[in-house]
Amino acid sequence: xxxxxxxxxxxxxxxxxxxxxxxxxxxxxxxxxxxxxxxxxxxxxxxxxxxxxxxxxxxxxxxxxxxxxxxxxxxxxxxxxxxxxxxxxxxxxxxxxxxxxxxxxxxxxxxxxxxxxxxxxxxxxxxxxxxxxxxxxxxxxxxxxxxxxxxxxxxxxxxxxxxxxxxxxxxxxxxxxxxxxxxxxxxxxxxxxxxxxxxxxxxxxxxxxxxxxxxxxxxxxxxxxxxxxxxxxxxxxxxxxxxxxxxxxxxxxxxxxxxxxxxxxxxxxxxxxxxxxxxxxxxxxxxxxxxxxxxxxxxxxxxxx
Length: 305
Fold this sequence. Notes:
This protein is α/β, with parallel strands linked by helices. 46% of the residues lie in helices and 15% in strands. Strand 3 (105-110), helix 5 and strand 4 (136-138) form a beta-alpha-beta unit.
């Protein structure tokens, strides 16, 4: 008798409280402890958004909602688990538990729409290694899912309707997490995926003035994908053709530090300093329409309606 299908949802992870920030930062730095100055800066960022990121709570809500949605669609077929890249439960722990449970195979879905060799592929590789002989069905980039495009376009239309500047004085910037520029030379399609993703949503939302920028680059000497969204806002202000900038963080699916601080605190301050109004599209979080997108992607990977 079939033991069913495992579903492994994967995300970055975040510290659950202030005491966990330093070990979390050390893990991100591959075992190298941060300096006192680096730690203080990161702690200051968390403090600015209330002391802790809501990502753990948001991700848990997403996982619970996907589990419930799949159970409604195909009762008893799926065992849904979650593993994080940097916090407990780690990807390896969650994958190992699914394999030990005797599932026939595991569908691996990273909670980011775009794929990259330095991003989602690492999650999938870790899951595959931990599963051993249990097959992994890896879900590739899902940014072009029509229902996701429609949902993001609706978020954009809502944000545009709430700002005062006329459409001809408004510019939309789509953002995603930057990665080192060297991924281009390696043939990574991540930058091209973001361009296509932005184009799909812009067309669905009926935009005429929009562009793509990158955010949250790491602080290393090597060049990272650009342009940086802060520089783009400064450029728009210098050109004098824009009164409001609306940001759609198309590469993220939940509220977390890179959205609530990098955009809503840091970028908003840059915009204000340039004399521009700032607005951001609402995050997807556990919106039932987004949960349905995730369930659709999983069902397609499973070969079921």
